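Hypothesis: this fold can be encoded by more than one sequence.
Test: take the structure tokens below, design a sequence, compare later.
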């Protein structure tokens, strides 16, 4: 049993399928999309099972839930360094943003105002380059 399996609790076959989908995907999938992909591999997987697996993986720090300006969350495999997201309001594309400027903001809040930042939730949305071009 590897470390990852231990952290995820008992890795049932259906949970493993959910984890595999997140590991293979470069996208930011919501629960419905994960469910659709999971059913292609095991048609008996219910949406409730997908939700339970996601909640468990999130609790164990294996995945992250991102709020991308919609009512529901999007999921991705946890990454070593924090990153943020730009969502295109027109085509829905999600672009990952580097974090050094956000870290700079946290550093400045500390040096200027003595605030110790623990979490930052940043939602950036607008129109991606392609959508701007199509409009022109
Ligand atoms: Zn776009
Ligand atoms: Zn991301």
């Amino acid at each position: 049993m590897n470390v990852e399996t231990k952290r995820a609790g008992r890795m049932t076959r259906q949970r493993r399928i959910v984890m595999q989908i997140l590991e293979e995907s470069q996208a930011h999938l919501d629960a419905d999309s994960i469910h659709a992909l999971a059913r292609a591999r095991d048609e008996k997987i219910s949406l409730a099972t997908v939700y339970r697996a996601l909640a468990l993986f999130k609790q164990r720090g294996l995945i992250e839930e991102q709020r991308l300006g919609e009512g529901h969350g999007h999921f991705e495999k946890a990454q070593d360094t924090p990153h943020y997201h730009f969502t295109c309001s027109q085509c829905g594309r999600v672009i990952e943003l580097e974090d050094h400027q956000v870290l700079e903001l946290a550093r400045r809040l500390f040096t200027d105002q003595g605030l110790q930042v623990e979490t930052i939730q940043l939602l950036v949305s607008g129109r991606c380059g392609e959508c701007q071009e199509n409009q022109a």
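The two ends are 55 Å apart (CA to CA). Residues 32 and 72 are 10 Å apart (CA to CA).
Hypothesis status: open.
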